[in-house]
Amino acid sequence: MALVTSKEMFAKALNSDYAVGAFNVNNMEIIQGIVEAAQQENAPLILQVSAGARKYAKPAYLTKLVEAAILDTGVDICLHLDHGEDFDICKKCVDDGFTSVMIDGSKHPFEENIKITKEVVEYAHAHGVVVEAELGKLAGIEDAVNVSDRDATFTVPEEAAEFVQKTGVDSLAVAIGTSHGAYKFKGEPKLDFDRLIEIRKLIPETPLVLHGASTVLPEFVALCNQYGGDIPGAQGVPEEMIREAAKHGVCKVNIDTDLRLAMTAEVRKYLVEHPADFDPRKYLGPARDAIRDMVAHKMRDVLGSSNKR
Ligand code: G3H
Ligand code: 13P
Ligand code: ZN
To answer: Which of 84, 106, 171, 247 is in Cβ range 3.0-4.6 Å of 90 for a Cys bridge?
Structure first.
């Protein structure tokens, strides 16, 4: 049992029809809920930490909590930096013991993205750490109505091939119509699967990553709204589309919003139903259980990663 890279996880997932879940973590209850699910489902696991999470919890706490989860459960975990914006934060995480980092140079012009990514790859690989990069901008399909709009926003397959060849990156996040948060589509959910298939054809050995892949589970949105929340019209990526993406080279599926919704729904429900309680364990316990059950459902019924450890 150890902190591991995603190399072996992706090698197994690449030519299969399942994907590994990568879940964002911000505190102890979230980590415990997710790791319990992975233990129960015997599923490979990536826990990812954003710059915001490091700022909120302080870096040492999250690293130590993940180490504690490994000790407690015996589950191997890949500890990944989510959306590292520059070389410095990637270096810090490599030095802190992360086994995987993402350099997100997607806001930069193509050549600049290559340059920054290459620098991170050199440093990380010298320390046994793997690197994810991103090409294209995450945006809903309605933001890119025609082909040239889409090429300006989504990942261009030929550029993906050149990017991977020039940077030596281990995995690539692609933009095919998903977006972060709880409002992913204005109308019918739609992803550009033709583009995904084309990218995969050109770089068949590169594990692909799907960001913004929460389903925005309606049951949790409904609970939030029922117990005082105000998140109307929230909509995510249907589970069927995640299953489809896993068949076309997507090895890593990023989920944060669904964790936030599950936790918030349970906390809201508990507090409304038990107005006299004020012991945080009373409402964080059920929130942790909800996260465990939601993540187990994803692994078993959506990602197909149960028993793939
Ligand atoms: O991709 C973004 C993740 O959901 C992390 O969000 O930067 O608010 O921690 P955050
Ligand atoms: P969601 O907002 O869909 O959960 O996406 C999370 C993500 O991509 C983290 O990098
Ligand atoms: Zn993301």
So the answer is: 84
